[in-house]
Specification:
alpha/beta; Dna Ligase, domain 1; D-amino Acid Aminotransferase, Chain A, domain 1; Glucose Oxidase, domain 1; eight-stranded mixed sheet; 36 helices; about 15% strand; elongated; binds adenosine-5'-diphosphate; binds magnesium ion; kinase activity
Length: about 900
């Protein structure tokens, strides 16, 4: 058994590893070894959790080894487990390899029973404190280990508080506490049919087992799935000697960060409560004091804490989230970990730490979550409207700015309602007195979170920051009647305002302000700087953002292009740093009101002449779009896909629309209906689309290549460098591509001669049909580039469509058939294998084959890692995801090193 002891300057494990000892255990060992005061304890490694899960029970030799190791803790503390004379009390704490805040439950004060209780009273002379500790122990043990609902205990507690006129828990007198304890024990007896376990060894065994078991509780599973934490890790168990923050006014407990987790500001930051134990700060029941006030209350402790937090930050070279307890003037550290932070804070901290020479730029790149960047680019509330709201006193209240960003939404007071509302396509904003781990799903579905209680380290604040959601906590003017579906606010001017479920509210997580109604938003500093509207140096956020993008560009190998169909999209893409267009879907150019009728005319044509006439009318529109696209992307490649969707998508459906069209273009309604019904397909995804259109209607392809090359020639005349890449969609057979290519080349030659112009154009294909991937060596003969259309390739490889998979895919993900949504993240072993085969075969036929990916996965960091590994030349994604892709491409290189 590899149980590890830590404490009094010692860690038995010289190299405490997180995967083996869990995050908490490994950091407790490290702190002990650094000479930082931690209460001595032992760590049961995660291997034992896996062992437990395989067997379904604890291995028989486990508890004897635990008792053996516990002797070291007894030695280190001078106390004895299960012994009335100076009894050793312990906490039993879970600790997974990846921090999962609030996911698994801790039991405090374990080891108390009638005998040890007496011993403790004799020792401390403080009966109230000991009884309160016992009461808490029964409650936590009853809830976590025995499965008796938390609220049953709370009801008993509240009943007795009311009876004895106690406001705070600490107001309860020993007699009342004894009554509570009796009621608690009766509750346990009734709920489980067994008396509350009095044998400390039995308590310990049951608690250890409960922690292992809690790895598989619903909340933990949900959190792991959300964050892609492997199921196989398991949790460690930490059994640690207790220290008490509830031993009067020279004791307390607190949580702090070495820098501000919300803004990233380099300033020690935190909160504490005097005379409180354990989770009181995080639970948000009492609103805590700011850490600066500790300097006044306990100057020595404060100085020591300052020293330790600096030591920890320089040791870990990262912002730390620290838990501490003070017992009668003596400081103990109970936990440290890399602190969760908002995207804004992660950006600032990473850049600051490079300036401070704590880390290098490469490390900084790995510290910023690529997926968090869109939140930084997200709009903020319009400052003029905010000012107006302020001067018109439309600010309802102000709380703590726990998670920055602007959120508007419909108020909901219960998590289940948030989930229901989101399912209906409306955006909820979750408003609660405080949140608990049961609210995770509701928070996930809300645009923002507002709570009445709690500080910057409360559950709501921590989780919201992890989710990158705007969040305001500790808004004490707010009273939420969760069961009754309304909330009341008394504004600063003393106005009473009621918010009903479904009313619109807005919160500004950067200022902490709460507004009634929906607020207008404007672009963030970064966006404005990217468009050149402000100088990046004028805003730290924009400056740091540009810095990080620059570092990323220096490191990455993959080029990043954008999917853009309009000149506007192309301009956005350029401002975000796109190096070309990877996919321009030409069909989107046909949907404008002045164009669609010609497109429809083309489809409804009875003869080739009629069709060509309609196409002639479309040509100038298309040519103009391309010209502007080339201009926006001057010097960069622009990949243009020939018409792809089935033609019936362009025809009207309702009687009204049909009548209107018939009028407009002088075709009978019957004919429209007839044509629509012939074009109707039972399986459009596999129907008459892609290159099949260009092959059956060559005049469409001819018109498109004309538009592209005429535009290119015009741009050339204006001295703009153009690199059009003409892409044939949905090729599965070599012959399909060669037919289209022949057509394209004949037309191109004629046109370039006509214009007397040289254009450097390429012809290539999308690889999105499995047959194309498997015969890529033949296809590459005619293709100078491949672009993997991962949306279709995924549908066709997996055999289910993205739009119809929702009902079973959710179940598949739950069962782990697929670990991730294969439409969001490339399915490496299936679709990824198609890509590998196509690359290998394609390059064997044409060594200079250019390869890229277009489709949603081109902007997904996990997929980008794969695309980097297999050696694609570029990824293409939506314009707003270009910065994500730039950073993720750099991270992919760093991860592979
Ligand atoms: P979480 O994983 O939710 O952070 P912890 O294991 O850190 O749970 O326990 C929650 C809280 O319980 C801690 O923040 C600390 O205040 C308290 N606690 C845990 N162990 C001890 C201990 N040995 N002595 C005193 N308080 C403890
Ligand atoms: Mg903790
Ligand atoms: Mg496609």
């Amino acid at each position: 058994m590899d149980i590890v002891f830590f404490g009094n300057g010692i860690s038995e494990d010289p190299n405490p590893d997180k995967i083996r000892l869990g995050g908490k255990g490994s950091n407790l060992c490290r702190m002990a070894a650094l000479g930082i005061p931690v209460p001595p304890g032992i760590v049961l490694p995660t291997t034992l959790c896996r062992d437990y899960m395989e067997r379904g029970h604890l291995p028989p030799e486990l508890m004897p080894s635990v008792h053996e190791k516990l002797k070291k803790v007894e030695e280190a503390t001078g106390r004895h487990f299960a012994n009335p004379h100076k009894p050793l009390l312990v906490s039993v704490r879970s600790g997974a390899p990846v921090s999962m805040p609030g996911m698994m439950d801790t039991i405090l004060n374990l080891g108390l029973n009638a005998d040890t209780l007496k011993g403790m009273v004799l020792e401390t002379g403080d009966e109230r404190f000991v009884l309160d500790s016992y009461r808490r122990f029964i409650q936590m043990f009853g809830d976590v280990v025995l499965g008796i609902p938390h609220h049953s205990f709370e009801e008993i507690l509240n009943h007795h508080k009311k009876k004895s006129d106690a406001v705070q828990d600490t107001d309860l007198k020993p007699a009342a506490l004894r009554d509570i304890i009796d009621d608690y024990r009766n509750l346990v007896q009734k709920g489980t049919g067994q008396p509350f376990p009095d044998d400390p060894f039995m308590q310990l065994r049951m608690a250890v087992e409960a922690v292992f078991r809690s790895w598989n509780n619903e909340r933990a599973i949900y959190y792991r799935r959300l964050n892609h934490i492997p199921e196989s890790y398991g949790t460690a168990v930490n059994v640690q000697s207790m220290v008490f923050g509830n031993m009067g006014n020279t004791s307390g407990t607190g949580v702090c960060f070495t820098r501000n987790p919300s803004t990233g500001e380099r300033k020690f930051y935190g909160e504490f409560l005097i005379n409180a134990q354990g989770e009181d700060v995080v639970a948000g029941i009492r609103t805590p004091q700011k850490i600066e006030e500790l300097e006044r209350e306990m100057p020595d402790v404060y100085r020591e804490l300052l020293r330790i937090q600096a030591l920890l930050e320089s040791h870990y070279r990262d912002m730390q989230d620290i838990e501490f307890t003070v017992q009668q003037g003596k400081l103990y550290l109970l936990q440290t970990r890399n602190g969760k932070r908002t995207s804004a804070a992660s950006l600032k901290i990473a850049c600051d730490m490079v300036d401070e020479k704590l880390i290098d730029p490469r490390t900084a790149l790995l510290r910023i979550e690529a997926e968090g960047l869109p939140a930084l680019l997200a709009p903020i509330f319009d400052p003029t409207e905010v000012n107006a709201a302020r001067s018109e006193k439309r600010v309802l209240a102000k709380g703590l700015n726990a998670g920055p960003g602007a959120a508007s939404g419909y108020a909901v007071f219960q998590s289940a309602h948030a989930v229901e509302m989101a399912a209906k396509g409306k955006t909820p904003l979750l408003v609660r007195m405080e949140t608990s781990p049961d609210d995770i799903k509701g928070m996930q579905h809300s645009s923002g979170i507002l709570t009445a209680r709690g500080g910057m380290t409360s559950h709501a604040a921590v989780v919201a920051r992890g989710m990158n959601k705007p969040c305001v906590v500790g808004c004490s003017a707010l009273i939420v009647h969760e069961e009754h579906g309304y909330a009341d606010i008394v504004t600063e001017e003393g106005r009473h305002v009621r918010i009903n479920e479904g009313d619109e509210v807005s919160i500004d997580g950067t200022s902490g302000e709460v507004f009634v109604g929906r607020m207008q938003t404007v672009d963030s500093d970064i966006q404005r700087a990217m468009r050149g509207e402000i100088d990046p140096a004028s805003s730290w956020m924009a400056r740091d953002f540009f810095q990080v993008m620059k570092w990323a560009d220096e490191v990455r190998r993959l080029r990043v292009r954008a999917n853009a169909d309009t000149p506007q999209d192309a301009n956005v893409a350029r401002s975000f740093g796109a190096e070309g267009i990877g996919l321009c879907r030409t069909e989107h150019m046909f949907f404008g009101p002045e164009r669609l009728p010609f497109m429809q005319q083309m489809i409804l044509a009875r003869t080739q002449e009629e069709r060509e006439l309609a196409l002639k009318r479309l040509l100038p529109f298309q040519r103009e779009d391309f010209e502007r696209l080339f201009e926006a992307m001057a010097g960069y490649p622009v990949t243009i896909r020939l018409l792809d969707p089935p033609l019936h998508e362009f025809l009207p459906h309702t009687d009204e629309q049909i009548a209107e069209l018939s009028q407009k273009i002088g075709v009978t309604e019957e004919h429209i209906r007839e044509r629509a019904s012939t074009l109707k397909e039972s399986n459009p995804m596999l129907g008459h689309r892609g290159c099949r259109l260009g092959i059956t209607y060559p005049e469409i392809t001819r018109m498109q290549v004309r538009a592209i090359l005429e535009a290119a020639c015009k741009s050339r005349k204006k001295n703009i460098h153009v690199h059009p890449e003409i892409m044939v969609p949905l090729v599965g057979h070599r012959k399909e591509l060669s037919l289209q290519k022949e057509l394209l080349e004949v037309e191109a030659k004629r046109l370039l001669a006509e214009f007397d112009c040289h254009v450097d154009y390429k012809i290539g294909t999308m690889i999105e049909v499995p047959r194309a991937a498997l015969t890529a060596d033949q296809i590459a003969i005619d293709a100078s580039f491949f672009s993997f259309g991962t949306n279709d390739l995924t549908q066709m490889t997996l055999g289910f469509s993205r739009d119809d998979s929702e009902p079973f895919l959710r179940e598949y993900l739950r069962l782990g058939v697929y670990e991730r949504n294969p439409f969001a993240t490339v399915d490496e072993s299936g679709v990824g294998e198609m890509i590998r085969i196509a690359l290998q075969k394609g390059k064997s036929a044409r060594h200079d084959l250019k390869t890229g990916v277009c489709g949603e996965q081109g902007g997904d960091p996990t997929s980008i890692r794969f695309f980097n590994r297999v050696g694609l030349d570029y990824v293409s994604c939506s314009p707003y995801r270009v910065p994500v892709a730039r950073l993720a491409a750099a991270q992919a290189v760093l991860a592979s090193e």
